[in-house]
Amino acid sequence: MHNDTLIAPLFPPRVITNEANPIQLQESIFPEEEIFIRKAVPKRMQEFIAGRLCARRALSEIGIEGFPLLKGKGRAPIWPLGIVGSISHCQGYCGVAVAQKTDIESLGLDVECVEQVSMDTWKHFCNQQELS
Known about the structure:
The chain has four helices and five strands; from the N terminus they run βααββββαα.
């Protein structure tokens, strides 16, 4: 089930990943999802749309089609029953990881542009070997 995305090696084989450059996506999202970005600035709209489209592609690999991803607490996506997932984006990139809850209990993904992360921040998410 693993695919050829940049983020796929970060996860166990039962996790499906998808990624895209938000600017390159021309597909539309569900009307139920559009409600959440009606008043958003164009950059935020692009990121939101990219996240939903990447999630839809990943979910389709698990056999889930046509499921609108609404927002729940803290603006987190409400995944289909039995699915865990994570969406993250930064300038020019959007990544998604999803899995069946029977295989993976929870998922987290946070992407950042390297040059925008201060050196003090690195120690909070990298181990000593990665810092070296």
